[in-house]
Amino acid sequence: MSRKDIQRAIDLLNEIHRLDSSVLPALIDYRVPCNDAVAEHPTVQVSPDNKVGLLGIINGIFGTNKNGWGFIAAEFTEPEQGHELKGFRYIEEGWKPKVQKLDIEHVKTMWLSGERSVKREE
Questions:
Q1: Across the strands, what pairs with 33?
Q2: Could you give the CA distance from residue 111 to residue 122 in angstroms, rounded to a whole number?
Q3: Is 65 helix (H, G, I), strand (E, B) or coil?
């Protein structure tokens, strides 16, 4: 898929969010258990406990960057501002978290689930 195709999907997600700000947060937060075949899919983004959500599937459609991340990220306000969904954005090729000493699998799960905290490695 091209960057233009991915951007069209992001634009649609952001439009839906502008039209009704209650729809996508509920869908993004919702997870269902999946089997190992889905969990091991090369592009579908699945949490370490084998749960998948809408954004993980959407990212699966568009593939992953060279670091294994999907190209579409949900952006949230800071926790002290209520951790509300702001919208969606493109993740640049080669993107990596800028915070040091993070459990990368947990960060992936956090991005996909909107989880409220980040586990730091001890």
A1: 51
A2: 21
A3: coil
pLDDT 10s digits, 59-91: 999 999 888 889 999 998 887 888 899 999 998
DSSP assignment, residue 48?
Answer: T
The CA distance from 64 to 68, in Å, is: 5
In this structure, what token pair is assigned to residue 24? 């996508």
- As given in the structure block, the two tokens for residue 81 are 């501002």
Q: Which of 52, 72, 54 is nearest to 63 (CA)?
A: 72
List CB contacts of 121: < 8 A, sequence separation 6 or more: 101, 102, 103
Q: At what angle do helices 3-19 and 54-62 cross, to 10 degrees?
A: 160
pTM over 0.85: no
Regarding beta strands 31-33 and 51-53, do their DSSP bridges make them parallel or antiparallel, or are they unpaired? Answer: antiparallel
